[in-house]
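User: Fold both of these, please.

Assistant: Here is the first one.
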Amino acid sequence: MVALFQNGVDSDNGIIGSPGMRPVLPNTTPEEIELFRKRIQPIDMIGCTDIARIHAKVSELALQVPEVHDDDVAPFIPPDQTAVIERVTAVGEDPQRIKLDKAGYFVINIVEGSLEVEHYSYKEKLLRVIEGDDPRAIYLTIVRNGWVSRIDHAAYLGRQLTKAELSIQHGFMFVQDGA
């Protein structure tokens, strides 16, 4: 946001000078971006962790009445009605026809409020245990190290890790779904 207000965008709506991974505003016109930059006054409080200071700034700004001018209002332009958007109906697979991941399988456990993921070969050999509190970090560690080779297995693992995290947060018993 700081780079957007300081530098604007290039011809492809990329935010000039932004350190973000994909600093692009793809569904916005240059006119809308400039109008946004004109109407909004950013308050840079990056790094501030003082709740009282943040609250005081929000309270101060809430008392201000913004100026509104008729010429500031961008006309609403409806989306192109002639564009055809593909619609796809999702189809699940028969659970009896699941293909096993050659990289092995995972058993997710909750141990003293933390996640432990055991990685096994199909010869029932324990290969490793991945530990952590953040399911995303565990998932990314598994993917980054190539311990999962099928995208459907990766999706399943992500879903089960999220389910385990929610079980910890809400005190539910966690039971991993069968593949």
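And the second sequence with its predicted structure:
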Amino acid sequence: MVNKKRQSCLKEIQEEEVAFSHVPEHGFSFFLAKRQKTIHFIRHAEGYHNQANYAYGDDTPVTFSTPGAWDYIDARLTDKGIDQCVKARETLLEGINPELVVVSPFTRTLQTAHIMFGGRGYPFLVHNLCRERSGKYTCDKMRSKSEIVADMQPIYDHSYDRIDFDSFGFTTPDDEVWTEEREASESVIQRGVDMMKWLATRPETEIAVVTHSSWLKHLFRSFGKTLIEEDKDELHRLSGNAEVRSICLAMHKGFYPEGEWVGDTDIFIPSHPSFRRGKWSVQPETLATMHKGIQPHELKKN
């Protein structure tokens, strides 16, 4: 017999099944709340590479073959970009209260995320899937993980913010992905889709993702082809620096992180501890059982 709580989770849906109710003449669809998440996508604020490109008129200053281009590796925020973050924090984030802030591992995204969300108790998690499109441009090559963490960890620590650099943030200590050839569009789109699937497995229902313009362009333009033109234009246009664009992620299938059910119970334990919140949080019954095993030595002997 299937446990009732298991039935309430996002079980796998067969091809012939649907997870929403749509009546065309009504003009709207019904999704259960548990099948929806709000994702706030945020492009980083102005970096020194943006400033150089704006002044020149194209991407020549950061093309790897251009003299001085390597000055822009893993570009940081300009003073203007920092001010953009402060202004966004005071205006654009009204009503936005994410349970998790996911950040691309570049310095400019880590700076943007901290200025906009730091000091408010949100957990930060660095994720490599939402890094910028790689290759050709020096600004899109990361410094080593050790250099980035050495710069950013003390800043996050100063505001008592918890940031996870290790779980999903860096595939290797040094950026071995970047090449002189630009990453294929198909690869960027696939990373975006994989990121959305990963977000679908999260227990949080409101998440902020701080990322990059080209990554967002590829993700957004791979969706919405059947939208009305006004909505399509809004979804597909390029994101501005420090812009916040929110979408509703509605899930038509069942999504679980890696993990397992405990015997024939209603407890699901994800393999990775970062997922153990919300509906997958530690169960009080389990905690009670563990603590009951801690007894005085004289009682254990008896």
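The radius of gyration is 22 Å.
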